[in-house]
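Blackboard transcription, Thursday session:
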Amino acid sequence: MSPSSPASSTSSWRRDFLTRPIFSIAKKAMPAMSDTEREALEAGDVWLDGDLFTGNPDWSKLLATKPATLTSEEEAFLHGPVDELCAMLDDWKINWEWRDLPPEAWAFIRQHRFFGMIIPKEFGGLGFSPFAHSEVVRKVSTRSVAAAVTVMVPNSLGPGELLIRFGTKEQREHWLPRLADGREIPCFGLTSPEAGSDAASMVDSGIVCKGEFEGREVLGLKLNWHKRYITLGPVATVLGLAFKAYDPDRLLGGETDLGITVALIPTNTPGVEIGHRHLPSMQVFQNGPNWGRDVFIPLDYIIGGAQMVGQGWKMLMTALAAGRGISLPSLSAAGAAYIARTAGAYSRVREQFGIPIGKFEGIEDPLARIAGTAYLVDGARRLTCAALNEGRHPAVVSGIMKLHATERMRTVVNDSMDIHGGKAIIDGPQNYMGSLYRAVPIGITVEGANILTRNLIVFGQGAIRAHPYMLDEMNAIADPDETRGLQKFDQTFWKHVGHAFRNLFRAWGHSWSGGLFAPAPEAGDATPFYRQLSRFSAAFALCADMALLTLGGALKRKEMLSARFGDILSELYLLCGALKRWEDEGRQQADFPLLQYCMESGFKTIQTRFAEILGNLPNRFVAYALKFMIQPLGAPVHGPSDELVHRCAQVILEPSAARDRLTPNLYRSNDSNDDNPVARLEKAFELVTAAEDVTKKMHAAHLHDWREAVQKGVITASDGDRLAAAHEAVAKVVEVDDFAPEALSPIFKHHPLTQTQQDMQTKTASSRAAS
Ligand SMILES: Cc1cc2nc3c(=O)[nH]c(=O)nc-3n(C[C@H](O)[C@H](O)[C@H](O)COP(=O)(O)OP(=O)(O)OC[C@H]3O[C@@H](n4cnc5c(N)ncnc54)[C@H](O)[C@@H]3O)c2cc1C
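(Written on the board underneath:)
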């Protein structure tokens, strides 16, 4: 079209008379953004989150995503070395007696290249896909969280990942083979005492200067730092260090303030102090502080070489965009599946008031939540791994996964603790819950603490990154060339207005018709769920636009509103994961209660968050208008029915293919004599459920003692034997540990007892012997 055509003059009229004033207002309203904020925002890419933000998701894209699968080599590793490693791990001894993994486990981890799972084969690593990496972490964590963290960290955000993406050829050739075979143990130091969540505010510094290195004078950096909480730090041979680089004498010829930089420093470099340990929640993976005082390093210690000085934050944010989607979500999904298996089995074998506790409605409620959560979180994990396998780096989705997987694990761990009662509280080798319970806050805190991620990141980043127009508008506003900026803004802004109007009518129509006519693919019984998601996506896109319009940059400070928007976006994503799982597993009817539970709980959360947003949006006129359109009758908040809760709990109360599908690939010992408490529980569960027909016969005859039932001919002698074996197995499960006083208390060992204490002990010992 020629510049003088009528359409072109209309658009220049629009630009000059309509867009320009809006552009000026937007320019003033847009909050200043630091470089680190911008780099964090721009890291990674947009995927399904972008679709959900359009208000009209294209479901064929979700359904076309190739499910994450393992290669035969990865499968063999999972059932070979991973099982072998798991068999070596005794979580109680690791945490309470040795305070470390046993030396043979360390050697095995190195020998089998667990530290090199993500390192490409050409450098001697295993070259595993993100899904394989996730499955390994998942299985190991069901045996020992300390071991899982040890394996996870070198494959997560750290030197390996940074070298693969940004290292120079020489750095990769030198370090990657050594990291892959465990000759080097890496750690990554970002957090310092003053800079936790706000990691970019670190004071750790590197000054560009000349210094002596291997007998020659070279250009390098003099570093000073204090880091803490660094996982694997105490045993690391190479430290990835983030610091701020300065060049006061302009030796590099540019700015004096160069920005966050990342270098690899061998821990035996003079001036490095490392080795002390923290004790994080009694999980004894190696973790500790480190310091450097006037440590001189040459410039080629910087990852990517001197040209990458100042690029550290961008590098870290890019690595985080993928890494956050794997490690902690895998650990949490494993936790939820492990709990579904153990809490379900325990509720089935533990009887009170003459019946299994799992049959009480009060216990069915948490059991259903556990089963639903296990289904949901693992569905979302698999979906995220599928995207990562395709080479995507969905930053917002990774944040959602980290936050919600760990948060939901916290909920089901608490549920499981309640279900187990004293059995999970009394610590000792027979307690299979306590360690996971103590580990929960670690997952909540690391890789972006959850409160911050929920209130600031998910929607804060999502609204800009995943929104179809927001980032382009912001870039246009920030363009130093105002004429070009206005031109770009004019093009994007009006598309945005059109999009907002389409969503307004879409959201209104779908809400008033209860989503009956909202788009959905043919998905059998799950089709109505897609309709509801389409409806909520439209309402979400509309409300998000209105909040951005009325609050502008102030939305950043309105963390509670931002968190609720983030919750809706997260819920939409997680529910997509559940739907995809249902589809990929071949629409299993027996699993339908689990899917339905996830959907109905998720819809309840979404409706509640909409109501909370509309109740708190500062512009009341807009809030009432939105309420009229999307919730004219208020928020319907039924959630799953009692009947559905009952059916969902049943899935984990009885042995079935559905139960096995819900809890695949957890570590299970092949040793039938294994006195591991989970193996004992599985055995009791099998025996109790297999003897159910016998139990029913006894109940029908109002008998409780199997011996009497045999005597009266109600059951056969062999039935009696089955019941006896089941009772014996249950008694072992219900047992908890006790310890001699001197085994628990060092004070007891070193100080003589008072006479009264000694008397009490003797009395207890003799009464025990008698009983
Ligand atoms: C066991 C463990 C292992 C770790 N491993 C490593 C490692 O290997 N390498 C490494 O560099 N670091 C590591 N960390 C550090 C971890 O990433 C930090 O602990 C985390 O970033 C939080 O920092 P903080 O603990 O100082 O909490 P703070 O930053 O003090 O935060 C305290 C609370 O305030 C909240 N908060 C902060 N800002 C906001 C905001 N704007 N809005 C709302 N809420 C906010 C947080 O969410 C949190 O709930 C590890 C930590 C632990 C505990």
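Lecturer's comment: Residues 482-512 form the longest helix (31 residues).
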